[in-house]
Amino acid sequence: MKFGKDFKKHKVPEWTEAYVDYNELKHILHGIRSFRQNNPNLARASSKRFSLKNFNSSSLHEANIDSHDDIENQVIAVHTVLQGNSRKLYNTRLIVAPTEGEGNERNFFRKLDDELNKTNNFFKDKVEEMIREAASLKKQMETLVALRIKITNPSSQGSIPLKSVSSEISNLDPSKIIPPGKAESIGKMDRKPGGEMSCRNQQQPGSSGADLSFQEQQSDSRPVVDVLHRNNSTDREITDEHETTNLDILDRIKIQNTYDSPMETIKGVFTDTREKGLSYNKEELKEVEERIKTAFIEFYQKLCLLKHYSFMNISAFSKILKKYDKITSRLVARSYMKIVDDSYLGSSDEVINLMERVEAVFVKNFLNSNRQEGMKLLRPKQKIERHRITFCSGFFSGCSVALVVAVILLMEDRKLMHIKSATLYIEIIFPLYGFFAFTVLHMLVYAANIYFWRRYKINYPFIFGFRKGTELGYREVFLLSSGLGVMALVTFLVHLHVKMDSDTQHFETYIELLPLGLIIVVLAIMFCPFNFIYRSSRFYLIKCVFRCVCAPLYKVTLPDFFLADQLTSQVQAIRNFEYYVCFYGGGRQLARRLTRCSSDEVYNAFYFVIAVVPYWFRFLQCVRRLFEERESVHVYNGLRYFTTIVAVSIRTAFEFRKKTVWKVLALLSSAVAAIANTYWDIIIDWGLLQRQSKNPFLRDKLIIPHKNLYFVAIVLDIFLRFAWLQLVLILDVHSLHGKTVSTIFSCLEILRRGLWNFFRLENEHLNNVGKFRAFKSVPLPFTYYEDEDDNEKDEKDE
User: From its phi and psi, is residue 446 left (phi > 0), alpha (psi between -120 and 50) or beta?
Assistant: First the structure.
């Protein structure tokens, strides 16, 4: 694989604009090559150098003047400007005889300097952010140590002497981080084939280096805390034998309440507090440990991304300079790479040092010194693509097509659509299999969404909060959907064949149980606790569904309201699921079952309620977000869903009472809801139709290169949003039978939801990109009184 493609593939999607603009530099080099090929004489003349006497030697970077021979063959001179914030800006000048074609080369070095300054500043900003976060984690760990001591030995008071204790926790303090040195960190970065840099640990177990431990030992009934110290001759830190840990810190802290359970939410409504005091019990300690453990894992993976960012950008500088040398026959790569290696991007060791400390802290404190298990949790897991997934997907999809053809041929052969009794039978059993049809279609749409999200580098695993390495790709989702489709089609084909064959009609009672058996099998697989068929993804989906059902008792995250929006497009499938209860709870005769379902008051009441339930979930989620975030946008969003609830309720009432008044009310309410939802889709969810955008009627940043596709999506969304009005108008299509019309429009709504999914996540991704937000925010458990006092004092000073 060429480096350009590999470089693009391994970028952190949210940081794309902060990477070296490798393609633009290559474009400039193409211009230089074309000029030299068209003007060979000028190219030879341009090889004449200026003498360095023409330049002030004090302005040249010291790395360029290594020897007299280097001065004689100098091609570039780099001027370094030190800014007030201790950051360097680099400015390169080309030391060659001025010719007609040297403009492109000067543009090349101007662009190269801009990219070096950009990546250098971005990397420094992120490292400083990581150092500040390390200081916060250090403080949290000190508090956790004190809490462990207090719970293990409740009689402990004041300061506890820590025998043979070093100050390794303090190594996470910003003042303890080794300042930038020479470019040793790049040598530590292991590179995998294809340009991928791994986040492997740089020290082996038992070697010298940062090592932090917390172990509870029983010695005279007193817990002893062992913490690591650096066995480095230049950086040795040995804690005094009489060092103490102050347990008084526990009197100045509270635990942040995340309202992550229904009971905490209910208590929060009445007490209106987000903090609670310490209770000093083991359950509380376990909760705190889990939260800090998660924070350490996330922090380590941030450091891995920063390490990878530095490595890939330095590789990009090296590759592009080698291309320049090859095209111009000038030897500048070595000189300029010295500048890159001496820059903050190439010489900073903070990331490596922090990674070593975090590894040691995590392994000793949370994994009982089991380094192998600790590194499994810390290292980001890479998803492995398996060929058998592709093979099975193709096999099941081929079987699905063959089964669909077989069903059509069977229905034509038996004239099922022309015989009244057969048509009635299909009408009765169709909702049983319609549930699977809607589900499979939605899964196929989701697989297509994943394919295009990946193609356009939309970081959907980060947005949804999937655990890295466990997220499903489009191949896996397509495999599941095609497998479910095969199961449903086989069941339906057997059902029709046995029912319509006079020789096998005595099996009718058992055949009617096939759809119910299929539902049971699907649910059994869904809730199966064993690790097969993507257990982590199944349980993640179950958890999200449960949080939707329990709204507003749980904190609303993006996967929660995204799933609730999917459910609003599956109203017909949910009603079909209700039909299962009515069908198998009815009489023995099919006609009686159909009559009973259409005339039963309880069934009709639930038919009414089920249509509203998904929108009610979203309404309650808006209420919860308003309660937490206090933003007016959630008021408007809640009103939108309430309007939709009213429209769906009136429209469902019109289905039961075909009166002109209900029809007018249904048309008006549905039109208002459609207008509100369409506006929200395009303006808020997609971020399009911005007035002052550089892309007229769209937005400033677009991922899809073809702008016309955005306008096509807008038109399709408007059309499909208003298509549901036909259910009120009741279009009479004589060539279609039964509920075929409503089924078609339900399928169109699922397709519209798939369209919405792509652009909704595209907009979310661009919001993250605009803020360079590539990390999950993990709330820390402890809050400190002194921090609050300092903040109040700062506010008064301002």
Answer: alpha
Phi, psi of 600 (to 5 degrees): -75, 130
Q: Taking a C-beta distance cutoff of 8 angstroms, is the pair 133, 164 a contact?
A: no
pTM flag (> 0.90): no
**Nearest residue to 35 (alpha-carbon basis) of 117, 89, 106:** 106
Residue whose structure tokens are 């939709």: 644
Q: How far apart are CA 433 and CA 519, in angstroms?
A: 10
**Number of other CB atoms surrounding residue 776 within 10 Å:** 12
Give the domain ranges of the chain.
3-116, 131-327+341-378, 387-782
Fill in the amino acid letter for 25: L
H/E element, 62: none
Give CA–CA dist 196/190, Å, rounded.
9
What the block records as the tokens of 267 is 């208590």
What ranges in 460-473 are assigned the alpha helix state H?
Answer: 460-464
DSSP notation for 641-696: HHHHHHHHHHHHHHHHS--HHHHHHHHHHHHHHHHHHHHIIIIIIS----TT-SST
Please tell me whether residue 772 adopts helix, strand or coil conformation.
coil
Total residue count of the chain as it appears in this document = 798
**∠620-631-557 over CA atoms, to 5°?**
50
What integer best gives the mean pLDDT of the chain? Answer: 77
- What's the CA gap between 470 and 461, in Å, rounded? 9
Q: Report CA-CA distances (Å) from 120 to 22, 114, 652.
A: 15, 10, 61
Assign 257 to helix, strand or coil. coil
pLDDT in tens, 243-300: 445 677 777 787 776 656 666 666 555 555 556 667 777 888 888 888 898 889 889 9
- pLDDT per residue over 506-517, tens digit each? 666 677 788 888
Q: Find out whether 527 and 600 touch, Cβ atoms under 8 Å.
A: no
- What is residue 213's DSSP assignment? B
3-state secondary structure 367-401: CCCCHHHHHHHHCCCCCCCCHHHHHHHHHHHHHHH
Helix (H) or strand (E) holding 76: strand 76-82
For residue 254 the two structure tokens come to: 């509270």
Listed residue (520, 539, 793, 568) closest to 677, CA to CA: 568
Tell me the C-alpha distance between 63 and 515, whole Å: 76
Residue 73 belongs to what H/E stretch? none
In which band, very low, low, confident or very high, does the pLDDT at 330 lie, cut at 50, 70 and 90?
confident
Angstrom distance (rounded) from CA 783 to CA 791: 13
Residue 143 contacts residue 250 (beta carbons within 8 Å): yes
What are the φ/ψ torsions at residue 506 (nearest 5 degrees)?
-70, -10
pLDDT on residue 752 = 94
DSSP 225: -
Q: Is 661 exposed, middle or buried (CB count within 10 Å of its CB: 0-12, 13-18, 19+)?
A: exposed
Cα dihedral sign, 326-327-330-335: negative
Residue 601 main-chain phi, psi, to 5 deg:
-70, -35
* DSSP secondary structure letters along 331-374: --HHHHHHHHHHSHHHH--HHHHHHHHHHHHHHHHHSTT-HHHH
Class of residue 667 by CB neighbours under 10 A (exposed 0-12, middle 13-18, buried 19+): middle
Phi then psi for residue 223, to 5 deg, are -70, 140
Torsion of CA 762, 764, 766, 769, to 10 degrees: -130
Residue with the two structure tokens 């790049």:
186
Give the amino acid at 626.
L
DSSP characters for 699-765? -S--SSS-THHHHHHHHHHHHHHHHTTHHHHT---TTS-TTHHHHHHHHHHHHHHHHHHHHHHHHHH
